């Protein structure tokens, strides 16, 4: 997949005229990058279009070929992006047969209400920023049933990854970043402590905070956990509200440290 420029708006139309240039200028005033592509470009040169688009705008000045709409639809689905469509209200039913409603961020009638258009663009990126800021948590546990339970508890508030072994956890963290790891202490082949030691030995993963999940509460065990410098250790009997509270408190304390 081509690398995309986040915060960029690509306007697609049959030709670049006075009105589309005005749209670009207004978008730049909001602080977002803009680009223009003709309908022919969108069909012929997908790679270059996809490289620069965060949000698409289809400005319908003339009748558009079905093939071009299908190409745009393919791009939207490949990149998981949204499109604002500006056109005549009577064309809406025909367009949504090719470009499904879920990927149409907004349909705006011509003549265009510029304020409504800019509000839609700004609102889209404000939501995107919230998603980007959402914390990512990796759950590591060889008990698949328990891991999925924790996933269900966290998925509404966090981006959540899962790994069913220490080896999978290391592989996941090499490719992805995590703000917190919930680590099962006792796992076969590569245990939780061994995974933490491997994370600590690598400069790119050494600072990732770890909370241990365990079924044990003996003093000797607790002391061995403390030696590995986890941010906390949690008994697996913990309930949903208590776990969410622990994680929320941790991230709040982390934000306070970052501000200081």
Report on the architecture of this protein.
The chain is of the alpha/beta class and 260 residues long. 47% of the residues lie in helices and 20% in strands. The chain is built from 11 helices and 10 strands. The protein has helices spanning 18-29, 39-44, 46-52, 66-79, 92-95, 114-133, 144-154, 166-175, 192-200, 219-226, 240-259; strands at residues 8-13, 33-38, 55-59, 83-87, 104-109, 136-140, 159-163, 180-184, 210-214, 232-235. The two termini are 39 Å apart. 23% of the residues are buried.
Number of strands: 10
Compute the number of helices. 11
**Largest sheet composition:** 5 strands, parallel
Spatial gap, N to C terminus: 39 Å
Largest sheet, spatial ordering of strands: 2-1-3-4-5
Helix content: 40-55%
Q: Quote the beta fraction.
A: 15-25%
Query: Helices and strands: which structural class?
Result: alpha/beta
Shape: elongated
- Report mean pLDDT, rounded to a whole number: 81
Give the helices and strands as they follow along the chain: EHEHHEHEHEHEHEHEHEHEH
Radius of gyration: 24 Å
Low-confidence stretches: 1-6
Question: What labels would you give this structure?
Answer:
alpha/beta, 260 residues, 10 strands, disordered N terminus, five-stranded parallel sheet, 11 helices
Task: Give a quick precis of the structure.
This protein is α/β, with parallel strands linked by helices. The protein has helices at residues 18-29, 39-44, 46-52, 66-79, 92-95, 114-133, 144-154, 166-175, 192-200, 219-226, 240-259, and strands at residues 8-13, 33-38, 55-59, 83-87, 104-109, 136-140, 159-163, 180-184, 210-214, 232-235.
């Amino acid at each position: 997949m081509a690398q995309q420029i986040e915060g960029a708006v690509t306007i697609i139309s049959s030709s670049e005229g006075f009105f589309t240039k005005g749209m670009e200028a207004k978008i730049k005033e909001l602080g977002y990058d803009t680009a223009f592509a003709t309908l022919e470009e969108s069909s012929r040169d997908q790679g270059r279009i996809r490289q620069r688009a965060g949000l698409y705008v289809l400005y319908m000045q003339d009748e558009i070929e079905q093939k071009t709409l299908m190409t745009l639809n393919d791009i939207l689905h490949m990149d998981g992006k949204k499109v604002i469509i500006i056109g005549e209200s009577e064309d809406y039913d025909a367009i949504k047969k090719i470009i499904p409603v879920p990927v149409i961020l907004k349909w705006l009638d011509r003549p265009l209400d510029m304020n409504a258009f800019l509000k839609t663009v700004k609102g889209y990126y404000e939501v995107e920023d919230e998603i980007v800021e959402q914390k990512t948590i990796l759950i590591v546990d060889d008990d698949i049933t328990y891991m999925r339970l924790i996933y269900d508890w966290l998925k509404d508030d966090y981006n959540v990854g899962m790994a069913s072994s220490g080896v999978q956890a290391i592989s996941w963290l090499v490719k992805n970043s995590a703000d917190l790891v919930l680590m099962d202490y006792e796992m076969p082949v590569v245990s939780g402590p061994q995974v933490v030691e491997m994370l600590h030995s690598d400069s790119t993963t050494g600072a990732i905070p770890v909370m241990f999940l365990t079924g044990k509460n003996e003093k000797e065990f607790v002391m061995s956990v403390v030696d590995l410098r986890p941010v906390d250790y949690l008994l697996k009997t913990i309930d949903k509200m208590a776990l969410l509270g622990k994680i929320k408190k941790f991230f709040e304390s982390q934000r306070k440290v970052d501000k200081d």
